[in-house]
């Protein structure tokens, strides 16, 4: 059932919400926008309350801005746990990955889950290693799916009245291709996803280059989800 109202005027997160056009240009997986956006949730200890806000690049990347703001405003107590969820328009670069690891090592009570809309310069070996280092440090990294897009639309976007269910439906294939490449990164495989942009007509092209190591190592259900391979059939 679709709500006839937008976010309530009494919603404490209203002033921290982004506009629908911002959400679209930042989180569309087909767009290669330079600037990055971060939507985040923070939950302390056993409390049911969730703090939500957003941030964008300044002279620093959004990840560094978050860490500086978070550590300057909060006093940590080792006995209190803190769960943080990020929804990033771009995955962390090498430098940001190292900053995140340092932050987590200094605050062992913090757990971090990261959802990303796109992979930042994913063929760069340092960026790839940075993401692996985060995973090895206990950070969960996943590509955003329709479920995360809908969650962000409802909780972070100042959508118009009656538009709660009208969040942007991006092609699932783009999400699956990025998810496939993320698997390659985590498994230390060569890149399989090639991305090019034609600026004249604003088109983004995705091309796959799968090698034997990809077919041998990537779980079959991941490959099957892309439609790149067909399930084997045994005839009797």
Compact overview of the structure:
The chain has helices at 20-27, 62-73, 94-106, 125-136, 146-156, 172-186, 212-217, 220-226; strands spanning 37-44, 51-56, 82-88, 110-116, 140-143, 193-198, 203-208.
Would you write up a description of this structure?
The protein has 236 residues and is an alpha/beta fold. The chain has a domain of 156 residues: Cytidine Deaminase, domain 2 (3-Layer(aba) Sandwich), CATH 3.40.140. It contains 8 helices and 7 strands, in the order αββαβαβαβααββαα. A hairpin with a 4-residue loop joins strand 6 and strand 7. Helix 6 runs antiparallel to helix 8. The chain is globular and about 50 Å long. The relative contact order is 0.14. It is an enzyme of class 3 (hydrolase). Homodimer. Interacts with A1CF; form an mRNA editing complex. Interacts with RBM47; form an mRNA editing complex. Found in a complex with CELF2/CUGBP2 and A1CF. Interacts with HNRPAB. Interacts with SYNCRIP. Keywords: Cytoplasm, Hydrolase, Metal-binding, mRNA processing, Nucleus, Zinc. Belongs to the cytidine and deoxycytidylate deaminase family. Its cofactor is Zn(2+).
């Amino acid at each position: 059932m679709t709500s006839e109202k937008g976010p309530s005027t009494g919603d404490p997160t209203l002033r921290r919400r982004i506009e629908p056009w911002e959400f679209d240009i930042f989180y569309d997986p087909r767009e290669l926008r330079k600037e990055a956006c971060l939507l985040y949730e923070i939950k302390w200890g056993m409390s049911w309350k969730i703090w939500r806000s957003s941030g964008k690049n300044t002279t620093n990347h959004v990840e560094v801005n978050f860490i500086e703001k978070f550590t300057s405003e909060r006093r940590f107590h080792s006995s209190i746990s803190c769960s943080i969820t990020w929804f990033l328009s771009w995955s962390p670069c090498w430098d940001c990955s190292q900053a995140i690891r340092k932050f987590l090592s200094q605050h062992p009570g913090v757990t971090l889950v990261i959802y990303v809309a796109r992979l930042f310069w994913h063929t760069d070996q340092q960026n790839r290693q940075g993401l692996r280092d985060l995973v090895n440090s206990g950070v969960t990294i996943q590509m955003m799916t329709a479920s995360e897009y809908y969650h962000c639309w409802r909780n972070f976007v100042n959508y118009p009245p009656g538009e709660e269910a009208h969040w942007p439906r991006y092609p699932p294939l783009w999400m699956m291709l990025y998810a496939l490449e993320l698997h390659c990164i985590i498994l230390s495989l060569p890149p399989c996803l090639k991305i090019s942009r034609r600026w004249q007509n604003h088109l983004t092209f995705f091309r796959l280059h799968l090698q034997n190591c990809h077919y041998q190592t990537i779980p079959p259900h991941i490959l099957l989800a892309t439609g790149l391979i067909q399930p084997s059939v045994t005839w009797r």
